[in-house]
């Protein structure tokens, strides 16, 4: 039996390329992305560019105002402070619910993060970081908690772009997350909660 392959469309390929550049910090927050320039750079038609940009606007990574080029979404220090204000109680609930349990999907994301080559784009680190935390939240088994956490995903991803300046040595990021998963897995609940609170108490580096 052969399994059908689904080729990536030009729109999907361009959206993927731009997403990786945004989440690696290669395209800075606030940068305008003119359609004609992208069309020339990637050798695709402007309608393809327009559709790819629309995908990223829908994801929240870009913002677009009428008659203006799309721009990479900016998150301020105040935005990130407010983000953590909301994330802390959600992840505290997660720590309480999961204390004493290992989450296989989170362990898998950690191992994928650890195995990334040194020259891997930061967007790959962001993807595994998000996958790890999302796996913990999903493991709680609360659809409402999962929906609330998912609503914070865009700003969290954009915030994580800034952490590349804090974790120039990626082994430190891996070690911190390994300690986090170990603390949750060991329990008890109070120890897991303290570990999560400490994990979320960090600076965001420079844009």
Total count of strands = 3
The termini sit apart by 50 Å
Q: What characterizes the major β-sheet?
A: 3 strands, antiparallel
Proportion of helical residues? 55-70%
Roughly what fraction of the amino acids lie in strands? under 5%
Read across the widest sheet, the strand sequence of neighbours is 1-3-2
Structural class: mainly alpha
Order of helices and strands: HEHHEEHHHHHHH
Low-pLDDT windows of residues: none
- Work out the radius of gyration: 19 Å
The helix tally amounts to: 10
Which word captures the global form? elongated
How confident is the prediction overall: mean pLDDT? 90
Layout of strands and helices, then pairs:
Blueprint: H1 10-23, E1 32-33, H2 35-42, H3 46-59, E2 62-63, E3 70-72, H4 77-98, H5 104-114, H6 122-140, H7 143-150, H8 153-162, H9 170-186, H10 189-200
Antiparallel strand pairs: 1-3, 2-3
Helix pairs in contact: 1-3, 1-6, 2-3, 4-6, 4-10, 5-6, 5-9, 6-7, 6-8, 9-10
Describe the structure.
By secondary structure, the protein is mostly helical. 65% of the residues lie in helices and 3% in strands. It is built from 10 helices and 3 strands; from the N terminus they run αβααββααααααα. The chain has helices at 10-23, 35-42, 46-59, 77-98, 104-114, 122-140, 143-150, 153-162, 170-186, 189-200, and strands at residues 32-33, 62-63, 70-72. It has a 3-stranded antiparallel sheet with strand order 1-3-2. Strand 2 and strand 3 (70-72) form a beta hairpin. Helix 4 packs across helix 6 (122-140). The N and C termini lie far apart (50 Å). The model has no long low-confidence stretch (mean pLDDT 90).
């Amino acid at each position: 039996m052969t399994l059908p392959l689904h080729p990536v469309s030009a729109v999907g390929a361009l959206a993927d390329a731009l997403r990786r550049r945004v989440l690696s910090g290669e395209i800075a927050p606030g940068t305008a992305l003119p359609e004609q320039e992208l069309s020339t750079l990637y050798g695709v038609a402007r309608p393809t560019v327009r559709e790819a940009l629309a995908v990223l606007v829908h994801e929240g990574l870009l913002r677009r105002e009428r008659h203006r080029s799309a721009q990479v979404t900016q998150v301020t220090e105040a935005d990130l402070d407010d983000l953590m204000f909301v994330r802390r109680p959600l992840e505290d609930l997660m720590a309480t619910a999961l204390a004493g349990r290992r989450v296989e999907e989170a362990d898998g994301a950690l191992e994928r993060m650890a195995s990334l080559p040194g020259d891997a784009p930061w967007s790959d680190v962001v993807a595994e970081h998000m996958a790890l935390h999302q796996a913990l939240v999903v493991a709680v088994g609360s659809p409402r908690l999962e929906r609330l956490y998912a609503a914070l995903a865009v700003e969290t991803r954009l915030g994580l772009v800034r952490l590349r300046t804090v974790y120039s040595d990626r082994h430190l990021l891996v070690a911190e997350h390994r300690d986090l998963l170990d603390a949750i897995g060991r329990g008890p609940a109070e120890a897991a909660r303290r570990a999560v609170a400490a994990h979320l108490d960090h600076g965001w580096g420079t844009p």
